[in-house]
Specification:
Layout (H helix, E strand, L loop, with lengths): L2 E6 L2 E6 L9 H16 L5 E6 L24 H10 L4 E5 L2 E3 L1 H8 L2 E5 L3 E3 L13 H9 L1 H10 L3 E2 L11 E3 L3 H14 L17 H15 L5 H10 L5 H16 L2 H15 L18 E4 L3 H12 L4 E4 L3 H20 L5 H9 L1 E4 L10 E4 L5 H14 L5 E4 L6 H5 L8 E6 L8 E5 L6 H13 L3 E5 L7 H18 L3 H11 L5 H8 L1 H14 L8 H7 L12 E2 L8 E2 L1 H13 L9 H21 L6 H11 L9 H8 L1 H14 L11 H8 L7
The structure holds (2S,3S)-3-hydroxy-2-methylbutanoyl-COA (T1G).
Length: about 700
């Protein structure tokens, strides 16, 4: 079913019925077109109302059609909207819940619009690397004015319908049943023989179109150095001061150009990838989650405090357990300081801060957390410590409580084995700062039960996290891949690069932070401890020891004021440290290496292709459910440039065959074990077949 046609007296009601959000796919467009024609031809029909079934009026064009080009199948959305606007009988849109993108553009083509209070209104195409391509850039300014429309379209932000209630966008803003209100309005229009309002006929006045365009150019260049869409949005909107059809042509040209950009492919990929990640292949979507009313966190350090804030911010009560009073006081003090700093920045009201602080209680006793529905351990990253903690939790926590570890690399199966209830044990790997970073790796143990998985995925959405399921392996998805990336960054130093060159090359390519700045932020001692463990567990792995040399001098990064870079007290700006550069050069000499000039391109390829190759292994081993999950991990938690869509989509854009060829070259020229560059079997197979990771 896509369009229902009913009559209510002299009014034909066309209901879009295409779950989940009445996407304007080909069947819906065809149904609308046929429905309007049928109503036009029926002498018993005096007016037409269009509305949407379910949870939206319409969420817009069906984005899933874009890859195949089906959105161009006639009747295109533009053709449908032109038919609505050209109808001889009044057409009223009855809008509720959500009217976004093409959904709002459809309503703009109607003669009148009745909207329910609280309806979410947006033209969010810019977030997909596009612009409203069905007349939105020309009709919205004619309804709400040039500047207001420009802001909404270039930002893609969502507003509530009532905020635009006094504009020509809506004829009525109603509480209650919008269909009944629209039917009553339709009868009024017919009875009073009101002239049909066509937004295309409205003249947009703007004192100075060139000035507006210059303002637009100045505004968007800061917003979107990697994205062409925001400026294109404003250029299309600026055309609305001229003839309507010319503006529509301008909009169409710009839309087609954007559709062909890698940035729009990346953003559309991320839209679906983020939603796909929430699905677990072997956990039915109707699995009932356990009720989580009370949460406990063990450890009031940086991670424990940040995790506690994530839950309090979502209105969920949290008990923070520490063993030492001074550690608890310090942790609670840091949480208060974090809220106060948000308050100072105007991101929080006094009232909200008080509410959230009231939701976080401290305790020194395990008994105080026994009734929690979920407990998350965020203590020292050592298996012995985890054993003591989980043995205790197993004894104290009520039956049915979920026991989670925030471990970033340790074996969740071993941790589950410290309890008599392995089915209730799961890894919840938050990323620091936990109250800010969206990524949450949900690490499923071999015995983690399905309803526990369903519960934590549901909970992740509630606390605003992007959850990705990982199997158990060293480093799960993100850290396992970043380990390979770091190995290449270090060997590049031995061969001829300097830390600031490697960081600059990757940051110019789009990474939020280069590997050496990132390690200085996280603490070089953390990577050092992992390497020392791996030297024992995996003696076959070949590592550069340059990072160890730095750590042996106590240069742990920002926390010690000196790492790969220097840091002034209380500041995070990385200052090049000549003594580190000298250490790097001396180390190459010590190894008997003749340093060589290394291009930025080689730096980027060696580090990013190392990520991709490990990602292919992770997919193949089933640690990640799908390649797009790896993209979500890197886009949500590792500062990977969103306009490149994630490591695996980027690999598809480069072409897998080109990546394999480059890896062969690196095996010949780079330090370390040539086996490092052996293509993962999945990568080699897909490359040989001329295929990609994303089908
Ligand atoms: N096309 C296809 N599928 C869509 C969709 C869309 N526009 N919007 C949502 N879905 C799917 C989504 O993938 C998920 O599927 C399910 O619906 C629920 O989504 C010509 C070119 C509408 C506010 O950008 O912002 O119109 O995972 O989990 O939290 O100018 O979805 O269940 O299989 O997000 O209630 C412009 C995008 C399109 C709006 C609902 N429109 N969607 O949020 O549910 S381009 C958008 C949203 C366009 C024209 C241009 C949100 C929502 P599954 P959900 P939600």
């Amino acid at each position: 079913m896509s369009i229902r046609y009913e009559t209510r007296g002299p009014v034909a009601v066309l209901t879009m019925d295409n779950p989940p959000v009445n996407g304007l796919g080909h069947a819906v467009r065809t149904g609308l077109s046929e429905g309007v024609e049928r109503a036009e031809l029926d002498p018993g029909i005096a007016a037409i109302v269009i509305t949407g079934a379910g949870k939206a009026f319409s969420g817009g064009a069906d984005i899933a059609e874009f890859k195949s080009g089906k959105q161009l199948l006639e009747p295109s959305l533009r053709v449908v909207i032109r038919a609505l606007e050209g109808s001889t009988k009044p057409i009223i849109a009855a809008i509720h819940s959500v009217a976004m993108g093409g959904g709002l553009e459809l309503a703009l083509g109607c003669h009148f619009r009745v909207v329910a209070k609280g309806t979410k209104i947006a033209l969010p195409e810019v977030k997909l690397g596009l612009l409203p391509g069905a007349g939105g850039t020309q009709r919205l300014p004619r309804a709400i004015g040039l500047e207001a429309a420009a802001n909404l379209i270039a930002s893609g932000e969502t507003v509530l319908a009532e905020t635009l209630g006094k504009t020509a966008l809506f004829d009525r803003v109603v509480d209650g049943d919008v269909l009944e209100a629209a039917l009553a309005f339709a009868e009024e229009v017919v009875r009073e023989k009101r002239p049909l309002k066509k937004l295309r006929d409205v003249k947009v006045e703007h004192p100075n179109e060139q000035g507006f365009l210059q303002f637009a150019r100045n505004t968007v260049t800061t917003m979107s150095k990697n994205f062409p869409a925001p400026l294109a949005c404003l250029e299309a909107v600026a055309a609305c001061t001229g003839p309507f059809d010319a503006g529509l042509r301008k909009e169409g040209e710009l839309f087609q150009k954007l559709m062909a950009t890698p940035e729009s492919r990346a953003l559309q990929h991320f839209f679906f990838a983020e939603r796909a990640a929430s699905k677990i292949a072997d956990v039915p979507s109707d699995t009932k989650p356990r009720a989580i009313q009370k949460v406990a966190i063990l450890g009031a350090g940086t991670m424990g405090g940040g995790i506690a804030m994530s839950f309090a911010n979502a209105g969920i009560p949290v008990t923070l357990l520490e063993v030492k009073p001074e550690a608890l006081d310090k942790g609670l003090g840091t949480i208060r300081k974090n809220y106060e700093s948000s308050l100072k920045k105007g991101k929080l009201t006094e009232e909200k801060m008080a509410q959230r602080l009231a939701l976080i209680q401290g305790t020194l006793s395990y008994d105080a957390i026994a009734q929690a529905d979920l407990v998350i351990e965020a203590v020292f990253e050592d298996l012995g410590v985890k054993e003591a903690v989980f043995t205790q939790l197993d004894q104290v926590m009520k039956p049915g409580a979920i026991l989670a570890s925030n471990t970033s690399t340790l074996d969740v199966n071993k941790i589950a084995g410290f309890t008599k209830r392995p089915g209730d044990v799961v890894g919840l790997h938050f990323f620091s700062p936990a109250n800010v970073m969206k990524l949450l790796e949900v690490v499923r143990g071999a015995k983690t039960s399905k309803d526990v998985l369903a519960t934590v995925m549901d909970l992740a959405k509630k606390i605003g996290k992007t959850a990705v399921v990982s199997g158990v392996c060293d480093g799960f998805i993100g850290n396992r891949m970043i380990e390979r990336y770091g190995i290449q960054a270090s060997f590049l130093l031995e061969e001829g690069a300097l830390p600031s060159q490697v960081d600059r090359a990757l940051e110019q390519w789009g990474m939020a932070m280069g590997p050496f700045r990132m390690n200085d932020l996280a603490g070089n001692d953390i990577g050092w401890a992992i390497r020392k463990r791996l030297y024992v567990e995996h003696p076959e792995l070949v590592y550069s020891k340059i990072g160890d040399k730095l750590c042996e001098q106590g240069c742990f990064g920002q926390k010690t004021g000196k790492g790969w870079y220097l840091y002034e007290p209380g500041r995070r700006d990385a200052i090049v440290d000549p003594s580190v550069d000298e250490m790097v050069v001396a180390y190459s000499k010590e190894l008997g290496i003749t340093r060589r000039a290394i291009s930025d391109e080689e730096i980027v390829e060696r580090c990013i292709f190392a990520l991709i190759n490990e990602g292919a292994k992770i997919v193949e081993e089933g640690i990640a459910q799908r390649a797009s999950d790896i993209d979500v991990v890197y886009l949500s938690g590792y500062g990977f440039p969103i306009h490149r869509g994630g490591p695996m989509l980027y690999a598809d854009e480069v072409g897998l065959v080109n990546i394999v060829a480059a890896m062969r070259r690196f095996a010949r020229i780079s330090r370390g074990d040539p086996k490092f560059w052996e293509p993962a079997p999945l990568l080699a197979k897909l490359a040989a077949e001329g295929r990609s990771f994303h089908g």
